[in-house]
Amino acid sequence: MDGIAGRRPLLIWAVHLSVAALVLLWTIPTFGLLVSSFRDGDQLSVSGWWTALTPTERNIVYRAPAAEAQVEQAGQWVISGNVFEGQAAGEITKFGFSSKAPTAFDAGQSAELTKGRTLSVMANGDYRIASSEEMKGKRGARIFFTSIDPPRFTLENYRNVMFSEGIGRSFINTLTVTIPATIIPILIAAFAAYALAWMKFPGRSLLLAVVVGLLVVPLQMSLIPLLRLYTDVGIGKSYVGVWLAHTGFGLPLAIYLLRNYIKGLPKEIIESAKVDGASDFDIFRKIVLPLSFPALASFAIFQFLWVWNDLLIATVFLGNNEEQLVMTARLRELLGSRGGNWEILTASAFVSIAVPLLVFFSLQRYLVRGLLAGSVK
Amino acid sequence: MEQLIFAFSSMAAGVGACVLYFWGTNKILDGIYPASGSKAGQNILRANSIRPWLFLGPAIVLLTLYLIYPVVNSVMLSFYGPSGEVFVGTANYSWLFADQGFRESLFNNLLWLIVVPAAATFFGLIAAALTDRIGWGNIAKSMIFMPMAISFIGASVIWKFVYDIRGENIEQIGLLNAIVVGLGGEPQAWITLPFWNSFFLMVILIWIQTGFAMVILSAALRGISEETIEAAVLDGANPFQIFLKIKVPQIWGTIAVVWTTITILVLKVFDIVLAMTNGQWGTQVLANYMFDWMFRGLDFGRSATIALVIMVMVIPIMIWNIREARKEG
Question: Do A225 and B49 touch (CB under 8 A)?
């Protein structure tokens, strides 16, 4: 193929460019999320993440303290301070004292207020309200200013979601659901797969057909009957219920994948072991299980990603409380309650997708192998 | 921390119980029918006829309990009232066919069924064909494949951020609106746009599934015999002709598999709609509608009826799959 393309440099360039475009399209949304999760919340809400490296312009209103804060200095009454007090500093370019003209003056200028007062605001945020006579009034003057903020990156969002928004707790809950729900079905499926591949018994092909049929049964069918069943037998909303549910729903694919793989193992090995008097249990344990490692790993990754990312089963079979809310459910809740707080949403989302991404990139080989075994013949 | 210990110990308990079951039952079977002594031959035969069922036992129990019983039970529930105790005959079905929400969901589901598998397969095929020709193809593949690892809900957050809208004179922080405004257009609230909003939700699933299609189709493309391609090259076919007339026809089977796999996924799509719109603004789909009747409507009968509709839509694919599997033996 290289030969053909090689003779057409224009075409090969077109290929490079189209692939680059596809890759960009497919990664930019996630990249935007990642960048945003490290940005300062105030900056995130006023400028696009693609401007994260350039300074941000903000228009802010500051209310100076009321008249009681004034001090007498050299025959003048003065209120002074810094408009950035309590927040990150930027550089002030313009300021004003009324909402009609919030950018009337340049930083460093002195503005004439009413009653002979003057207001000056420096670029670093220091302001000074001066008056020749004692100032009165219970409300302080408002200062409008435009500030150019340097780009700020922070881990604050992550600290915030992990400890105050409950993502940390949900992370543990998700782990609690995922680990057993990944391992238990593998064991059960492996035995069943071996039986379907190498043992002779009546009804084998029927059973295999049933497994293939069950592969596509929509989960939605099972929710209500199982919810009722769980209530009746007293499992209720518990981790055990979720583990069993994930095991049950994962079994058809597990059995199908493993059976195909185990069926493909060399016949001679298994038959010669039988001739040597090994029982099926020994053959399974000592020969089939070690040889099937790649298939077991493939399914384990599938099941892990599926359980980690699941929302439906967790919502139906787990409670809505601190001890049981998994990350996907928490994320959904945050989408409702923190819809506009993108610094919280992006950081939370990234925490929840970090583990699957890690698994994905480190074990991609097995995942691809499993996909191919599952669908291509 | 305590909970993690609980998780690990219950995992150990679960795995232990499984091991104990398989090991124990096999031990007992060998005890009852020892493969030695005067009846050794007969015993081995007997043990061999029982052992498969020991291996299959837990799987059969779980499959029956979690998949087969619910199907039967759902069919029954669809003839019962909200709490599942009062028999109402076909009332749920007559309600369903007259219900506006159901029609909307069905229409949207059909829309999803047409667009998503087609688009994901198409992009997957393009990506597979192109990445196989360049040096950094594997990295590119990884990147396109990556959304597969992201949860639907995580993907929804990602895309909700892309679709975000701010007031007209304020800087847009959503990528799509920023581009639209940059090109001189008006910012739009994409997920509330009538009719088109469904497509903006579909984009999310297409984004996730393209990688899957690409991986499978790429393997199929590599499996095509060199001879047919060489013959075409000798005949003077250009790369486009080779792709469309030689390669694609040879992988129709795989394309069909990819298409049906995504179709099944689409029928069950739920998380995306729940997270993005919760079915508002005319984006409802069956799976979410079912969920809605289950948790907000608290009507098990109607909910089970909607689930059955999804099931009925899956059945043709199920039959086709079973036939294919039987052919291969």
Answer: no
